[in-house]
Amino acid sequence: MTDFTALRARMVERQLRRRGIADERVLAAMGQVPREAFVPSRLRHRAYADAALPIAERQTISQPWIVAAICQALELRGPERVLEVGTGSGYSACVLSLLASRVVSIERHQALALPAREALASLAVTNVELRLGDGTRGAPDLAPFEAIAVHAAAPAAPAALISQLGEGGRLVVPIVAGEEVEMLTLLRRRGDEFETEGLAPCRFVPLVGEEGF
Fold this sequence. Notes:
Blueprint: H1 4-16, H2 24-32, E1 53-54, E2 60-61, H3 64-74, E3 81-85, H4 91-97, E4 102-107, H5 110-122, E5 128-132, E6 145-150, H6 159-163, E7 165-178, E8 181-190, E9 193-202
Parallel strand pairs: 3-4, 3-6, 4-5, 6-7
Antiparallel strand pairs: 1-2, 7-8, 8-9
């Protein structure tokens, strides 16, 4: 029988801590969430592989390091409200649920939203609201957000999401920087201006929607 607890602990130490993830809250959350609950049953033996894995609708569950890097860049301390674009399997939403007070996660594929909701419910996650729709529009009825995470590559940071970011808020989004090149990018709001920082090269599925591809 696969010892997922041991694999998860090894993932935290070898894939995350040794590769620059230093936020202890993020490391603890990644060490608590059972990634195997969010991958297809046929791939559960690879749940803690250092790689993205395929899920339904030609989407993926991100590499663990990418999830941790996004969470670390959001600088969550506990009381924040977080908007997530691209629920996918629900794994990242589950991690975020341990780092923030409320998570609003938007998924455009019903075939992904339903199992994600079931997986979150099976783990008794109660502070994640999962919505079905165009994530590039965000959730203006609940704005502003202290943090926004986008799990798909965009041509630029969507204007609707930028407008929903509160003062001092952090937006992390993969941005297509050139042919076959994507950069995980952090935007921090300072009044009407934004500080921008490239975090790491990455590879995501395209962001589809009104302000995506």
